[in-house]
């Protein structure tokens, strides 16, 4: 059923319910029962839904009589089902982007002994493993080692692999060692002085390691302007994903909530999918440096990011 109709399927084990979403509409089956809830209507197809060895079996009477009745795009004729090919809106590929790398250390810690590039790579690898183990998705990293990758090549990698989501992982820095907390960004013009400061910090790599002013022009040419227009189609989803990340990070790690913000990050420009940038904490804050370099705390960060992605995936697919 999921392959034929590209269905989004989830289950509620306690309530013995099976949720099946196709063509943007949801059916709710009662397991070991013959009843189906669709919108405000209840259907009875006589034989019950059966679960055996982790699989669900729907009766033929449902396929012959009920399914064509509730979906105009499905018909049953001469013993066969005919249906329009549904749009596949499932999230199947996620690209995780560990910021900086190689000659670009990113933020340098309060003690001057730790680098952003190492922490975000560690978190990203752990997140990749958790997503692969717990969710039916392909997870790719823009870098798997301590190497330099240009900002342009990061979104190019996501586009070439037809990614459904792009998540850039970073740690923050500030001239004041008192600055602390987590924040998540999506692509737009920066609205506050603080957002503009972070934007400048993350975009500085282009000046320092990609060729200076000439390299900046590459990010402002027609191709990138068109790419920005394409990304604008995903701003609502990017904002929703940013909000979920921020909520989970704050509640799971008990970090200070700096909010969801907008900024014009070069690394997000050109992504043809929902794209966000996550700042996990401040390397320049003594207490946060200690936490960010702690493996147990990193697991908390990973759990936060995982839960946000899981929640977003389920709700996004059901809404389509």
Apparent shape: elongated
Counting DSSP E segments of at least 2 residues, the number of strands comes to 15
Which residues sit in consecutive blocks of at least 5 with pLDDT less than 50? Answer: 222-226
Major pleated sheet: 6 strands, mixed
Rg is 23 Å
Order of helices and strands: HEEEEEEEHEEEHEHEEHHHHEEHH
Q: What is the mean predicted local confidence, pLDDT?
A: 85
Question: Can you put this structure into words, describing what you see?
Answer:
The protein has a 6-stranded mixed beta sheet with strand order 11-10-12-15-13-14, with helices on both faces. Strands 1-2-3-4-5 form a 5-stranded antiparallel beta sheet, with helices on one face. The radius of gyration is 23 Å and the shape is elongated. The two termini are 17 Å apart. With 320 residues, it is of the alpha/beta class. 41% of the residues lie in helices and 24% in strands. It has helices at residues 2-5, 60-70, 116-134, 151-160, 193-209, 213-219, 222-232, 235-253, 286-292, 295-319, and strands spanning 8-12, 17-22, 25-30, 35-38, 41-44, 50-52, 55-57, 74-77, 80-83, 93-98, 138-141, 165-172, 182-187, 257-263, 275-282. Residues 222-226 have low confidence and may be disordered. A hairpin with a 2-residue loop joins strand 2 and strand 3.
């Amino acid at each position: 059923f999921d392959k034929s109709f590209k269905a989004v399927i989830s289950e509620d084990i306690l309530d013995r319910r099976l949720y099946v979403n196709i063509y943007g509409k949801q059916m709710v089956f009662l397991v070991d029962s013959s009843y189906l809830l669709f919108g405000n209507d209840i259907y009875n197809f006589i034989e019950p839904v059966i679960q055996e060895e982790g699989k669900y079996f729907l009766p033929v009477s449902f396929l012959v009589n009920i399914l064509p009745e509730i979906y105009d795009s499905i018909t049953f004729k001469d013993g066969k089902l005919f249906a329009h090919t549904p749009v596949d809106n499932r999230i199947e590929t996620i690209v995780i982007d560990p910021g900086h790398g190689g000659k670009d250390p990113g933020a340098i810690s309060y003690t001057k002994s730790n680098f952003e590039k190492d922490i975000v790579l560690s978190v990203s690898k752990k997140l990749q493993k958790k997503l692969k183990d717990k969710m039916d998705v392909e997870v790719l990293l823009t870098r798997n080692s301590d190497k330099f990758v240009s900002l342009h090549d990061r979104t190019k990698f996501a586009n070439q692999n037809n990614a459904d989501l792009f998540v850039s992982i970073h740690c923050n820095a500030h001239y004041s060692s008192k600055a602390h907390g987590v924040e998540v960004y999506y692509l737009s013009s920066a609205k506050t002085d603080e957002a503009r400061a972070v934007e400048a910090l993350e975009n500085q790599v282009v000046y320092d390691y990609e060729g200076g002013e000439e390299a900046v022009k590459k990010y402002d040419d027609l191709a990138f302007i068109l790419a920005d227009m394409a990304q604008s189609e995903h701003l609502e989803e990017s904002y929703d994903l940013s909000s979920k990340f921020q909520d989970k990070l704050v509640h799971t790690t008990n970090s200070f909530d700096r909010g969801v913000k907008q900024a014009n990050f070069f690394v997000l420009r050109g992504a043809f999918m929902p794209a966000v940038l996550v700042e996990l904490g401040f390397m320049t804050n003594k207490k946060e440096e200690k936490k960010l370099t702690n493996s147990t705390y990193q697991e908390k960060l990973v759990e936060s990011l995982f839960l946000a992605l899981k929640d977003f995936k389920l709700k996004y697919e059901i809404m389509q």
